[in-house]
Amino acid sequence: MHVCIYGSAIESIDEVYREEGFKLGKELAKKGHSIVFGGGSEGMMGAAANGAFEEGGEIYGIAPVWMKNFEGIFKECDKFIYTKSMDERKNLFLEKSDAFIITPGGIGTLDEFFEVWTLKKLKQHNKPIIVFNINNFFDEMFNMINEMAKKEFIPSEALELYKIANTIEEAISFLE
User: Fold this and answer.
1) What is the distance between the alpha carbons of residues 172 and 31, in angstroms, rounded to a whole number?
2) What is the pLDDT along the chain (176 residues), one digit of tens a residue?
3) Residue 155 class from Cβ within 10 Å (0-12 exposed, 13-18 middle, 19+ buried)?
4) 3-state secondary structure of 46
5) Collapsing DSSP states into helix, strand and coil, what is residue 81?
């Protein structure tokens, strides 16, 4: 299975997150899954790619050509696709991936999560979406989403379109 990893590309995040990202990439590779990601060498994405690489997993990076001006590119990708835009990149993530795991990140990660969740709600795909809630990182977001559902801004059935995993084992079990 090709598993898209969304997450931070910033190296200064707490080591506990990078460690979990590394372990996630390693476990996915052990189980025979390849990773598809934004191609960065740092943060959650870089950690997951390093874990997959250490385990001999397949790694596919996708990034706009201008992204190398903002972050380092992971050099050990088996395949790297350069795009012209973020939209093209996100479309390729959707096309090339069989599932999505959202790890802690910033505005880019939230954008990617909300897009794949929205597209699933609109029946544009039926791929698993797993939010890896390391150290309760996403709890406040879930509180906001639940409040929006309570006030009927989000239909309650939309909350069933993604799974929340608090451990790597839970994340992998949702894939398999």
Assistant:
1) 9
2) 999 999 998 889 999 999 999 999 999 999 999 999 999 899 999 999 999 999 999 999 999 988 777 777 889 999 999 999 999 999 999 999 999 999 999 999 999 999 999 999 999 999 999 999 999 999 999 999 999 999 999 999 999 999 999 999 999 999 98
3) exposed
4) helix
5) strand
Q: Is the CB of residue 97 less than 8 Å from the CB of residue 2?
A: yes
Amino acid at 89: R
Output DSSP code: residue 73.
B
pTM: 0.95
Asked if residue 162 lies in contact with residue 130, where contact means CB atoms within 8 angstroms, the answer is: yes
The beta strand positions in 2-127, using DSSP E, are 2-6, 34-37, 59-64, 79-83, 99-102
- CA 59 → CA 32, 50, 116, 126, 144, distances in Å? 11, 9, 21, 23, 34
Query: Exposure string (b/e) for 13-24, b if CB count within 10 Å is 16 or more?
Result: beeebbebbbeb
